[in-house]
Amino acid sequence: MQIPTWMTERLPDLTRNQFECWQSLLEERTGNYYSWQHRSILQAGLVRRMHELQLRNYDEYLNLINAPSSSLEWTTLVENLTVRETRFFRHFPSCDVVRNYLDTLLEHPDKRSIEAWSVGCSTGQEAWTLAMLINNKVSTLNRLVRFGVTATDISLGALAHGRKGVYKEREVSSLEPALRDKFFQKAGSGRVQVVEHLRERVCFARVNVLDLDRAPMRNMDLIFCQNLLIYFRRWRRIAIIEQLVKRLSPGGLLVLGPGEITNWQYPELEAVENDQTLAFVRRRL
Ligand SMILES: C[S@@+](CC[C@H](N)C(=O)[O-])C[C@H]1O[C@@H](n2cnc3c(N)ncnc32)[C@H](O)[C@@H]1O
Predict the structure, then answer these.
(1) What is the pLDDT of residues 88-100, one digit of tens each?
(2) Which of the listed residues 26, 53, 81 is the one where a domain comes to its end?
(3) Of 91, 95, 109, 231, which one has the fewest beta carbons inside 10 Å?
(4) Residues 195, 175: one domain?
């Protein structure tokens, strides 16, 4: 069989002008900012999708994306461009901050429910990590404490994966055996699945962090947002963090990725003293 030439021919590099059109479109719709130095990452994502569509011209693809009926194509492009790298218990010091916070929060005998939110949850590992941490804590109490974790992302593919809760065995191989046994069951073909009683606690939903003003989350005890804002410009990171703060309950904990925002203070927040993490508690009025 003869391979069509469009499959083998290398596409030309983006010109400066083409790059700037794509750069501003992506930043406007997703917040992700590609600098000229990172254009090869943007170009690789576009080319992958353009090959599938048998398109050879960046402007033609831009017109397609800008067309009124292009929402499905836009969703597919987002799948090609988002960085989804993640893992269970990705940042141990942040997990320790969550454990300490839960200890303090649940000292109050009236505290009967916990709401947590993983913002930019990718394929779910971060949300399941929070669910495991909370489950382990509440199961030591001699009273019933309900909890729920909301997991949000812009990528529908990532959310579908997270919702299923099925992962390769090697992804959980570094977890403590007690955690693996308690929270994962064999799913065949070298895979495991999060157990049902934990799956019932986590809800996955599509939320673009640029549209947080429309998101219904309120009074969160814990908001975890790591490795998402690093792709955004500083002014936008600050605007999003301020939106997240509004969704924390008084006394709630916000955990960002270390270094995700520097030289920033917010009057409503008190920094958690731990030099390996970037976490804040919302002051009680
Ligand atoms: C590198 S992953 C981080 C995953 C996880 N938080 C962690 O630290 O392991 C970044 C995630 O942010 C998501 N993302 C990118 N832009 C977004 C936006 N505007 N709104 C919501 N999620 C977004 C991507 O789809 C991706 O799943």
Answers:
(1) 999 999 999 999 9
(2) 81
(3) 109
(4) yes
- Are residue 183 and residue 60 in the same domain, yes or no? no
The count of structural domains within the chain is 2
pLDDT at 7: 54
Q: How many CB atoms lie within 10 A of CB 210?
A: 18
Residues in contact with ligand 1 by the CB-under-6-Å rule are 30-32, 82-86, 90, 120-122, 126, 153-155, 158, 208-210, 226-228
Kindly state the percentage of the chain with pLDDT values over 70.
97
Whether 117 and 150 have beta carbons less than 8 Å apart is answered as yes
- Domain coverage including residue 47: 5-81
Same-domain pairing of 244 and 206: yes
Measured by CA distance, the residue closest to atom 16 of ligand 1 is 30
Within a domain: 86: no
Which residue puts its alpha carbon closest to atom 12 of ligand 1?
A: 120
**CA–centroid distance, residue 167 to ligand 1 (Å):** 18
Q: Do 153 and 59 share a structural domain? A: no
CATH number of the domain at 200, please: 3.40.50.150
* CA-to-CA dists, residue 197 to 147, 150, 209, 221, angstroms: 12, 15, 29, 21
Q: Which segments of 195-239 are extended strands (E)?
A: 202-206, 220-225
The DSSP call for residue 155 is -
Domain boundary among 52, 81, 110: 81
Do 77 and 190 reside in the same domain of the chain? no
Q: Is the dihedral of CA 91, 94, 99, 102 positive or negative?
A: negative
Q: What is the pLDDT of residues 237-271, one digit of tens each?
A: 999 999 999 999 999 999 999 999 999 989 999 99
State the closest ligand 1 atom to the C-alpha of 78, by its place in the atom list counted from 1.
25
DSSP states along 3-68: PPHHHHSPPPPPPHHHHHHHHHHHHHHH-----GGGHHHHHHHHHHHHHHHT---HHHHHHHHHST
Q: What is the pTM of this model?
A: 0.95
